[in-house]
TrEMBL record:
GO BP terms in the entry: D-alanine transmembrane transport; L-alanine transport; L-isoleucine import across plasma membrane; L-valine import across plasma membrane
Domain ABC transporter: from-to ranges: 14-254
Transmembrane segments: none
Source superkingdom: Bacteria
Protein name: Amino acid/amide ABC transporter ATP-binding protein 1 (HAAT family)
Keyword flag Thylakoid: no
Length: 260
């Protein structure tokens, strides 16, 4: 164990070692270790303010940790900016929309396939244009938006926009896909489709999911990390998480987990 703590295993897609993050007086993340294997489906759960999104931001490189080490695909990326991590094969969604609202669904997917994101514009004319358009339309079908490919994003429902965000992250063909509350605000039917999309992901994609909808999270995940107050407090399989008293104490009453 001591050897794996200091020498990254090549089999590890993501490893966080002793990660801390402070925002002024707020100690948002406290000594978090995380090890995610290739192809794994991991859910990160926890009540509001537990530190889940901060951990996502530390993984994708929105800001560095106050201390500790982040390794992606076997490389130390602790100080590497987000765009370089994206180029290594990391793709993520955010709690708040980062879509291009004034252009169509297909054009959003096309730009994502091209490697352009709202924060990092890099438009390069490509001979592969027809191929990328084809990928964009195929992804629209996969996420249930094929009837809306020509519609402006601003005219989509909230649920449709959330699904488009997942499609944009996926069409970039990431090695590591990170979704921050993809089921938030979705209808029951949209949640079912999202769950099916995530369960049906190519086995080569590693998925890390923050999700308050326990039904979606525990169906999709093979392994669950539960956070509270900036720390990892429980890890286990979905069955172990369902049976765990601490999880029930944190979630029961909030209606986020069902009995039995
Ligand atoms: N940029 C920031 N500046 C100051 N405090 C922050 C910042 N980002 C997060 N925090 C604080 O860090 C703590 C953890 O927040 P975080 O958003 O990571 O929790 P979370 O588990 O994702 O919560 P939620 O489920 O509500 O999204 C909270 O106390 C939050 O207010």
């Amino acid at each position: 164990m001591a050897a794996t703590a200091t020498h990254p295993s090549p089999a590890s897609i993501l490893r966080l070692s002793g990660i801390d993050r402070r925002f002024g007086g707020v100690h948002a993340v406290r000594g978090v270790d995380l090890d995610v294997r290739p192809g794994e489906r991991r859910a990160v759960l926890g009540p509001n303010g537990a530190g889940k999104t901060t951990v996502f931001n530390l993984i994708s490189g929105e800001f560095p940790p106050s201390s500790g080490r982040v390794e992606l695909f076997g490389h130390d990326v602790t100080t590497l900016p987000a765009r370089k991590r994206a180029r290594m094969g990391l793709s993520r969604t955010f709690q708040t929309s980062r879509l291009f609202a004034g252009i169509s669904v297909e054009d959003n997917l096309y730009l994502a396939a091209l490697g352009v994101s709202a924060g990092h514009l890099r438009l390069v004319p490509s001979a592969k244009d027809a191929q990328l358009r084809g990928k964009a339309r195929a992804m629209a079908e996969r996420i249930g938006l094929v009837a809306r490919v020509d519609d402006l994003v601003m005219d989509l429902s909230h649920g449709e926009q959330r699904q488009l965000e997942v499609g944009m992250a996926l069409v970039a063909e990431p090695k590591l896909l990170m979704l921050d509350e993809p089921a938030a605000g979705l209808s029951r039917a949209e949640r079912v489709r999202l769950t099916e999309t995530l369960i049906g992901l190519d086995s080569g994609i590693t998925l890390i999911l923050i999700e308050h909808d326990m039904d979606v999270a525990l169906r999709v995940a093979q392994w669950v990390t539960m956070m509270h107050d900036g720390r990892v407090i429980v890890e286990g399989t979905p069955d172990e998480i369902r049976a765990n008293q601490t999880v029930h104490d944190l979630y029961l009453g909030s209606g986020l987990i069902e009995h039995g």
